[in-house]
């Protein structure tokens, strides 16, 4: 029987009984059919991963008792995604897959051709947390508050930011990544693409490097996941020794 793995907000330490998060009691008791004394794995993004026991389980409330640390806290490479919001199912999928790919932060950015005018940060944060639980990473990516494209670029800290160039005149992503290391960001535009004015303004930023994502036009969700996979393969932790 597999051991449930859950993210909690509380500090993790031996013999410290801690509360579960909303919904975890129902999940453990009603969905997973667990009971008091059963093992769980817990992580909080700070203290590594812990073996714990269910100390109390009452309807939707659960208490855990951590017993021993299984893995020390580790941080993956600082990879970031700036993404023009897309329709709900595609946006949910991007957040899930970006979490699995080890992205540290995801920020929605509004552009002229966005078809979505608002973002449900609570839902996206839940999707990121559940994906982190499933893929066994030790942290959950930040889902940052949405910003206008230009405001997001103004707030950027100067780390290299790669932007997919649908004009087909940019060098390939592997060429642009040569010699670069995290922190790195990827900017993905809306389904209709950036306007010429937006793309020109983006390319004038000294930290931005246009990069081609192949000879075909990609959907926004494809571009996001494909681009992040290349970043991880060439500059992230995929090549790191196990």
TrEMBL record:
Highest taxon, organism lineage: Bacteria
PANTHER family xref list: 16S RRNA (URACIL(1498)-N(3))-METHYLTRANSFERASE, RIBOSOMAL RNA SMALL SUBUNIT METHYLTRANSFERASE E
Keyword S-adenosyl-L-methionine: yes
Cellular compartments annotated: Cytoplasm
Reaction catalysed by this enzyme: uridine(1498) in 16S rRNA + S-adenosyl-L-methionine = N(3)-methyluridine(1498) in 16S rRNA + S-adenosyl-L-homocysteine + H(+)
Signal sequence bounds: none
Keyword presence, Aminoacyl-tRNA synthetase: no
Ranges for domain Ribosomal RNA small subunit methyltransferase E methyltransferase: 78-232
General function of this protein: Specifically methylates the N3 position of the uracil ring of uridine 1498 (m3U1498) in 16S rRNA. Acts on the fully assembled 30S ribosomal subunit.
Main location: cytoplasm
GO biological process, one term: rRNA base methylation
Name of protein: Ribosomal RNA small subunit methyltransferase E
NCBIfam families for the chain: PRK11713.3-5, RsmE family RNA methyltransferase
Cellular component GO terms, alphabetical: cytoplasm
Top EC class of this enzyme: transferase
This enzyme's EC code(s): 2.1.1.193
Family: Belongs to the RNA methyltransferase RsmE family.
GO molecular function, one term: rRNA (uridine-N3-)-methyltransferase activity
């Amino acid at each position: 029987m597999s051991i449930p793995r859950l993210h909690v907000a509380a500090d993790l330490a031996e013999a410290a009984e801690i509360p579960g998060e909303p919904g975890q009691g129902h999940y453990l008791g009603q969905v997973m059919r667990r009971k008091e004394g059963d093992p769980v794995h817990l992580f909080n993004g700070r203290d590594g991963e812990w073996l714990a026991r269910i100390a109390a389980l009452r309807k939707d409330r659960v208490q855990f008792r951590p017993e021993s640390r299984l893995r020390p806290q580790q941080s993956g490479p600082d990879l970031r995604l700036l993404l023009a919001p897309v329709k709900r199912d595609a946006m949910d999928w991007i957040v899930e897959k970006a979490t699995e790919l080890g992205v540290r932060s995801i920020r929605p950015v509004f552009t002229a051709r966005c078809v979505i005018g608002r973002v449900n940060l609570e839902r996206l944060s839940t999707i990121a947390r559940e994906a982190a639980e499933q893929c066994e990473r030790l942290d959950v990516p930040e889902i940052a508050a949405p910003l206008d494209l230009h405001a997001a670029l103004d707030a950027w800290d100067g780390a290299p930011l790669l932007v997919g160039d649908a004009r087909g005149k940019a060098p390939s992503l592997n060429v642009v990544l040569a010699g670069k290391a995290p922190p790195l960001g990827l900017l993905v535009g809306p389904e209709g693409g950036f306007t010429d004015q937006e793309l020109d303004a983006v390319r004038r930023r000294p930290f931005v490097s246009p990069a081609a994502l192949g000879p075909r036009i990609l959907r926004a969700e494809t571009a996001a996941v494909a681009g992040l996979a290349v970043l991880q393969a060439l500059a992230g932790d995929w090549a790191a020794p196990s």
